[in-house]
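Okay, is this right?
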Amino acid sequence: MRRTKETKQEKQKIENSKTSGKRKTTRKYKTRKLGIKVKIVVPIIIVNIAVCVLMGILFYGTMKQGMTQMGREEAEYVADIAAENIDGSIVETLKVGGEESAAYRVIDKAFEEARTGASVSSIYTLYTDGKKVYYGVEADDTDHIAKVGDVYRVSYEELKSVFDGKPYENVVLQKEGNRSIIS
């Protein structure tokens, strides 16, 4: 075995001496830290992620706007049904503390019928004395239902156009617990 090793070493020395007179050309290859595939794939992935994020943001905004619009339309529809079913002369007979009166029950029943099958949580009538705004009849899903004569949270100045016959719309969605409120 030893002889075989020596023989191989000797053969290499002989070959090296034969080529020592000739010029050796060795090429040095530049080693790249990142391959060309990585240089192409990584920017494509980054662009795809950016496009997906932007599409998600736009989709969310469009869905929120569409759902808000649908909520407004449903609220207007329920309000129109309730307005058709309520006689204005009955509303005028409401008195403070009259939650047990026949007029109150008739209006409350009309509100409940209008809300049936809709996702409207609250509907109410309002009246004013020219200085403040007060609740009339309120149909609500919560435990807190305003009584006739309770002061409304929005000032008369802000709602003056409503009492002149113009619609009022609060463009900002209000959050109350898990609910979104459109006025």
Q: What stands out?
A: Helices lie at 2-19, 36-85, 88-92, 102-115, 156-163. Strands lie at 122-128, 133-140, 174-176, 179-181. The CA atoms of residues 15 and 21 lie 11 Å apart. The longest strand covers residues 133-140.
